[in-house]
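Write out this protein's structure.
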Amino acid sequence: MIIPANRRLYARKVLRAAATVVLPGGAKREVKTWDLGLDGMAILSPKPISPGTRCELTFELPQDDRSTEVNVPVKVVYCSFSGSDGFKVGLTFGDMDADATAAIQQFAQ
């Protein structure tokens, strides 16, 4: 059996939390985060989101004794049915501001 190479640039860290996706046109969808890396993350969505879709994602990152809200532009790279959890959606990050980048770097370490 040949195992495909991992195409991710950075390792992922588990992050299970509530998040909100703002889709094109402004519709909001409540989702759950799955994992997070410096280059992107996976979420669980009750409905599919088409690959290629560009959206905004807002989520909380635990940091020390507080949490930090992060808002990042994302692009959907895959969407696959994941049973009763809905759809697993892979996201890559777009251009992030310095605060979002720093928060994700600190969490991912």
